[in-house]
């Protein structure tokens, strides 16, 4: 579990963490790594732009899955909505808004939101992928 600073640079930090965890646990291809990095980047960016601190990242990779596959679970927990009623906050232009959820829809095998008493956890499961053979 990693507590990330509530600033834009944390998306890059989260991508590096995902890459490190996947390299340590699973020998997956570059496409799988890139997909997981993109999903975590979207989740962290959303937390930074639209929620209060803290931003907490949890990444679990399991290579013990049946058939030599690697499963990846990503969670980003934030402190709940930052905007007041009627207020909109975003660093992206209007035509770019909302693309992150579409990206996650395409790349993740499942995803969702879990409300907590102190914030919200957004999670995504990446499709199980075969580990590379040497």
Automatic annotation (TrEMBL):
<keyword id="KW-0418">Kinase</keyword>
<dbReference type="GO" id="GO:0005524">
    <property type="term" value="F:ATP binding"/>
</dbReference>
<keyword id="KW-0547">Nucleotide-binding</keyword>
<dbReference type="InterPro" id="IPR050267">
    <property type="entry name" value="Anti-sigma-factor_SerPK"/>
</dbReference>
<dbReference type="GO" id="GO:0004674">
    <property type="term" value="F:protein serine/threonine kinase activity"/>
</dbReference>
<dbReference type="InterPro" id="IPR003594">
    <property type="entry name" value="HATPase_dom"/>
</dbReference>
<keyword id="KW-0808">Transferase</keyword>
<keyword id="KW-0067">ATP-binding</keyword>
<feature type="region of interest" description="Disordered">
    <location>
        <begin position="78"/>
        <end position="100"/>
    </location>
</feature>
<keyword id="KW-0723">Serine/threonine-protein kinase</keyword>
<dbReference type="Pfam" id="PF13581">
    <property type="entry name" value="HATPase_c_2"/>
</dbReference>
<feature type="domain" description="Histidine kinase/HSP90-like ATPase">
    <location>
        <begin position="5"/>
        <end position="111"/>
    </location>
</feature>
<protein>
    <submittedName>
        <fullName>ATP-binding protein</fullName>
    </submittedName>
</protein>
<dbReference type="InterPro" id="IPR036890">
    <property type="entry name" value="HATPase_C_sf"/>
</dbReference>
């Amino acid at each position: 579990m990693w507590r990330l600073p509530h600033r834009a640079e944390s998306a890059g930090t989260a991508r590096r963490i995902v890459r490190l965890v996947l390299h340590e646990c699973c020998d997956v291809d570059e496409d799988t790594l890139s997909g997981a990095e993109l999903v975590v980047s979207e989740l962290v960016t959303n937390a930074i732009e639209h929620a209060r601190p803290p931003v907490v990242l949890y990444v679990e990779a399991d290579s013990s899955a049946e058939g030599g596959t690697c499963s990846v679970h990503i969670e980003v927990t934030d402190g709940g909505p930052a905007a007041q009623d009627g207020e909109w906050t975003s660093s992206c232009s209007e035509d770019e808004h909302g693309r992150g959820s579409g990206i996650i829809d395409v790349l993740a095998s499942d995803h969702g939101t879990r409300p907590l008493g102190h914030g919200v956890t957004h999670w995504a499961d990446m499709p199980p992928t075969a580990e590379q053979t040497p």
